[in-house]
């Protein structure tokens, strides 16, 4: 990266959701990302995905029996004693432990945060102390402590009234001696706790307003100061970083920001530089030219690379793009021919025969043609159904229908009579057969004397 501060690569862990937490491992070779979805991801320095956590089953009531989170993630942190382990906290009220060496990508540890009434309480922030103690800031204003490896899934110690009941504890931090705990909530307070006597805060600071549920509070590397970001009520100018005393939390200094207020904070001890993420979408870096080294200094002192005319330019390229053969010197006489050909094509498209335009569907008022129904607005199937809905041949006598053509067959025999002209006998019709049949149909009376013997 040079003084232009342009990224060399952009990655999207989850489409359409914000990034809730970022953390580098102790060696710096892995980046842990907690997006607003239920699956955390781990990337290497080049942005290649190394690990993706499993997604839990939202229809299972007991969250200890599912393999992952079922709600949005709020925070993530690396295990301080093992670079292969990391923890994630979610709005489903659980904290889960993960192992990069586990190819099944299932959580290896689950603890549950509960409110004073025993209901679920979403985990908003997380901190790990000396690989044994986990501190969680919850969305009901409580702080709960868990011990790694404990058999019970509930908190070993809990301060349910740590902050206001309707506030979210957006950040918790352990001191380097592991005896103090720093907490920050959306009620505008920053409090310092003694873990050994976890009953009341040692010190408290008020009116440090921040309206974001991911607002940070951190210790300085020497722990003589505490830093916390604050924002203005309208979210515009007027925000900055509040510097407090590390033991009494008394106000020491305010660092103003040109646009918006500070939300996320990080003071890197090795390079001695302070990084702040603002609600305006900016990342601000504070450094000292004498006491800080590397980091932002390497970018500020490195001049941007000179533009190479053969490099590909994207986005805001100022160079003019010339289409091939668009200049007059490269034009061909065929252009005029192409124009005339275009006009001919337009006329040809208007000719239904030349362009082979398919026949239009049946429309009212159009004459019948090639199977179309003339003078009928209905479809052909409706027309056929209307004509064949009533069969008139059922009312006709078949004998009368045949005898109707008898005179024409005698006068002009064509089909049957010529074939049997030499052998056909003279037809003799019995016109009394109808009367005999009618008399035979009369019902006979039953005579019991004529009943057949069995």
Structure description:
The chain has helices at 296-301, 334-350, 380-387, 398-403, 406-411, 433-440; strands spanning 19-24, 30-35, 41-44, 49-52, 73-78, 85-90, 94-99, 109-112, 123-129, 133-138, 143-147, 157-159, 169-174, 180-185, 190-194, 203-205, 217-219, 225-230, 240-245, 251-256, 262-268, 273-278, 283-286. The protein is of the alpha+beta class and 454 residues long. The strands form 6 sheets. It has a 4-stranded antiparallel beta sheet, with no helix packed on it. Strands 5-6-7-8 form a 4-stranded antiparallel beta sheet, with no helix packed on it. A hairpin with a 5-residue loop joins strand 13 and strand 14 (180-185).
Brief write-up:
It contains six helices and 23 strands. With 454 residues, it is of the alpha+beta class.
What is the H/E order? Answer: EEEEEEEEEEEEEEEEEEEEEEEHHHHHH
> Largest sheet, described in full?
4 strands, antiparallel
Strand content is 25-35%
Structural class: alpha+beta
As laid out across the biggest beta sheet, the strand order is 1-2-3-4
Give me the count of strands: 23
Radius of gyration: 46 Å
State the end-to-end distance: 121 Å
Tally of separate helices: 6
Morphology call: elongated
Helix content: 10-25%
Give the rounded overall mean pLDDT: 81
Can you tell me the residue ranges where pLDDT is under 50 for at least 5 consecutive residues? none
């Amino acid at each position: 990266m040079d003084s232009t501060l342009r990224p060399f690569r952009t990655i999207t862990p989850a489409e359409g959701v914000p990034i809730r937490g970022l953390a580098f491992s102790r060696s710096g070779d892995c980046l842990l990302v907690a997006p607003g979805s239920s699956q955390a991801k781990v990337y290497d320095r080049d942005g290649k995905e190394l690990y993706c956590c499993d997604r839990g089953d939202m229809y299972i009531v007991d969250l200890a029996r599912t393999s992952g989170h079922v709600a949005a993630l709020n925070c993530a942190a690396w295990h301080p004693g093992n670079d292969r382990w990391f923890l994630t906290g979610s709005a489903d009220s659980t904290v889960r432990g993960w192992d990069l060496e586990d190819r099944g990508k299932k959580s290896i540890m689950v603890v549950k945060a509960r409110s004073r009434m025993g209901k679920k309480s979403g985990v908003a922030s997380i901190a790990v102390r000396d690989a044994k103690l986990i501190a969680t800031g919850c969305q009901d204003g409580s702080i709960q402590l868990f011990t790694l490896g404990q058999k019970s899934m509930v908190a070993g110690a809990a301060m349910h009234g740590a902050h206001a009941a309707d506030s979210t504890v957006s950040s918790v931090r352990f001191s380097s001696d592991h005896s103090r705990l720093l907490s920050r909530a959306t009620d505008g307070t920053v409090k310092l706790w003694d873990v050994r006597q976890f009953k009341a805060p040692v010190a408290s600071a008020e009116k440090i307003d921040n309206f974001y549920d991911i607002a940070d509070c951190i210790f300085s590397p020497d722990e003589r100061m505490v830093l916390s970001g604050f924002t203005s009520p309208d979210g515009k100018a007027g925000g900055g970083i509040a510097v407090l005393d590390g033991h009494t939390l008394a106000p020491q200094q305010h660092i103003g920001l040109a646009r918006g207020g500070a939300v996320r904070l990080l003071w890197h001890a090795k390079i001695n530089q302070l990084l702040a993420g603002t609600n305006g979408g900016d990342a601000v870096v504070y450094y000292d030219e004498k006491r800080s080294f590397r980091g932002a200094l390497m970018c500020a002192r490195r001049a941007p690379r000179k533009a190479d005319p053969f490099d590909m330019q994207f986005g805001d390229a100022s160079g003019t793009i010339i289409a091939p053969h668009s200049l007059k010197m490269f034009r061909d006489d065929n252009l005029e021919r192409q124009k005339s050909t275009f006009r001919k094509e337009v006329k040809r498209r208007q000719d239904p025969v030349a362009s082979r335009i398919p026949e239009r569907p049946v429309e009212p008022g159009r004459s019948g043609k090639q199977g179309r129904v003339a003078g009928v607005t209905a479809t052909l199937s409706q027309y056929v159904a209307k004509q064949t809905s009533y069969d008139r041949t059922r009312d006709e006598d078949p004998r009368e229908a045949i005898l109707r053509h008898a005179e024409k067959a005698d006068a002009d025999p064509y089909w049957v009579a010529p074939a049997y002209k030499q052998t056909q006998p003279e037809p003799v019709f019995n016109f009394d057969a109808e009367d005999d049949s009618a008399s035979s149909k009369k019902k006979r009376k039953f005579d019991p004397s004529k009943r057949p013997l069995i």
